[in-house]
Amino acid sequence: MEKIQNQKHTKETLYYSISRMLERASYYGLRALVVLYMVGEILKMERTEALSIYGWFTASLVFSQIVGALFGDLLIGNKKSIIIGGIIQAIGAFSLCIPSTIGLYLGLFLIVLGSGFFTPNIISNFGKTYLNKTKLLDSGFTIFYLAINLGSFLGILLIGYLGEKYGYNIGFVISGILMLISIIPIFLSKEKGLDEIEKNKFSISKRILNILIAFIVVGLFWGLYELSSIRTFDLQLQLSEISTLDIPSYLWQSLNSIFILPISIIAIVLWTYFYSSQFFKLMLGFIFGAISFGILFVIPEVPTEQNTIIYLFSLLFLAISEIHIAPIIHSILTKYSNPKYLAILISLAFLPTKLISLIFGLFNDKLYDNPMLGLKIGIVGMTIIGIGMIGYVIINRKTTYNNV
Predict the structure, then answer these.
(1) Structural domain that includes position 121
(2) How far apart, in whole angstroms, are the C-alpha atoms of residue 129 and residue 194?
(3) What residue ranges carry the coiled-coil annotation (predicted)?
(4) Which of 19, 136, 293, 385 could tie 378 with a disulfide, CB 3.0–4.6 Å?
(5) For 211-222, how does the pLDDT look when each residue is reduced to its tens digit (9 = 90+)?
């Protein structure tokens, strides 16, 4: 670990982070309401039909992001794509106020399309602001990740609460307004031109290898995370009923996000002043992930109230794991890619996650019947990948990542 000299975050970090936080608040708040709206008094859909539509809605985002990235990198520019995406998303949220299935489908289509333009392009533009000071990439993307988690947490609380209390239309309107406000910081930000970015000093083979590792690692992490989450949710339901801790029922579902917030702040401060390689951080992430699942494994299938603290410790280690992996993946892609095609690369990075989740999803019936099996697979998978990352870090221990 070396001390970082003469590198600072800029106001663009603040602008992009605020924009992303508001956009995520809009999106996750709306998402918290949309299934309830579909099965409610206006549309009166069957729950299975509503969940099917919701599934198509979330799955379509992967492909819309590729389309948005292509427009951003090749046709209209990243900044224009962010602004257009934000406007389309806002119109989509407002369209949900139309009390019919036409309003529903139109709204969901526009939200998917707008998010596709917004997401890969804002991540790309954010990353480009750090390409002349790559030792700050990890802390920068952790700030960005903190903004995402803050936005989703506050959006679910605010829009979810107001929508259920005062009517779904109020929630959808607030979602659309937040989306429009999220565009304002983008107008204030300065886009980094390609001629202002220092040329990538790494060999083609090294760049391709590191990008491929990042693609595979991110897919496996979220796939194993999802497999093990079946047991996590099972414990959450049981412990929330028997725990004597004064934790409100609605907060049990957000405990992981609550842990992520302080850990993110610690990581941001540490990584702003001290640099260690991105692959070393990934290694730690998988080690902490294996520890987290290992702690869950010692909790009996039918937990007691005394197991609550053990469960909370597991969530703490899982949050540490997530912070060492989720923002670092984008940091690696930004550092080793051609910045001209960064949004496209970022959009493609969502594919391995979706593909691995689909493959693991084929076994969901067995895992729901036996949640401990998913946990065992998670422990073994995290451990194997962690050992593999240790080997990769050792092989590259003499390599100095000093592309400032």
Answers:
(1) 8-189
(2) 10
(3) none
(4) 293
(5) 999 999 999 999
State which of 189, 218, 233 marks the end of a domain: 189
Comparing 397 with 204, the larger pLDDT belongs to 204
Indicate whether 29 belongs to any domain.
yes
- Res 248 pLDDT > 70: no
DSSP secondary structure of 229-297 = HHHHHHHHHHHHHH--S---HHHHTTHHHHHHHHHHHHHHHHHHHEE--HHHHHHHHHHHHHHHHHHHH
Considering the domain boundaries, does residue 194 fall inside one?
no
Query: What contacts 372, CB < 8 A, 6 or more positions away?
Result: 231, 297, 301
Give the least confident one: 35-49, 223-237, 334-348: 223-237
Question: Is residue 401 assigned to a domain?
Answer: no
Does 365 reside within a domain?
yes
Whole-number pLDDT of residue 401: 43
- 161 and 121 share one domain: yes
Last-in-domain residue among 164, 189, 214: 189
- Are 325 and 293 within one domain? yes
Report the pLDDT value the prediction gives residue 402, as an integer from 0 to 100. Answer: 43
Q: What is the DSSP letter of 397?
A: T
Comparing C-alpha atoms, which of 23, 113, 111, 120 is closest to residue 70?
A: 120
**Number of domains the chain is built from:** 2
pLDDT at 125: 95
322: tokens are: 């997530």
* Residue where the block lists tokens 């996590």: 232
Domain of 236, CATH number, reads 1.20.1250.20
Residues 89 and 94: their CA atoms lie apart, in Å, by: 9
